[in-house]
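Tutorial handout. Part one gives the primary structure; part two gives the three-dimensional structure as tokens.
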Amino acid sequence: MPDLKEAWQLAWADLGLHAPAGLCEELLVAYEEPQRHYHSLQHLAECLAHFDQVRHLAQHPGEVAVALWFHDAVYDVQGKSNEQQSADWAVRALQAAGAGEASRARVLQLIMATQHHAEVHEPDQQLLVDIDLSILGATPERFAQYDRQVRAEYSWVPGLIYRVKRKAVLKSFLDREHIYHTPYFRERCEAQARSNLAAACA
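Part two.
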């Protein structure tokens, strides 16, 4: 796993900017909130580890890295605007650091793409979405742990309702022609993701 502080410094160095003081610590605290079981430091670290492998594929690597740091910065398990609030926080931070309007707008769109509601066509968005969904193509053991972690986050939902809704979400990924957009993740994760999802939906 990457050193989180080093990854943070590299992200801002790629942007040619200095991060606002204390911001990294604020984010690390946010990712350790008690309601988080999957959307935690483990998930952030896994995403950043994947990004280390594909940094060279990003058009704006600093923006993708910062978007990964912020994509789950706000996580209310019953909230409907987590991505928007996370994106707004990122934009405020970038503005405070002196990032240009175009860069701020791209980071906002990167984070909003992790809603996974709409097809994404912009290459950096495709890369970030694939990183966020890399968990689907993890080892069966890690996928099973992920499944338990998501259930723990939704412990307030009755069992039958949860199982029906969870199966619908997982099947929506399985029903896609391709789960992953980029050749890198398609080659490495697609087959395992389909195996994991089929087993979970069975």
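Part three, for discussion. The chain has a mean pLDDT of 97. The chain has two domains: 1-117, 133-202.
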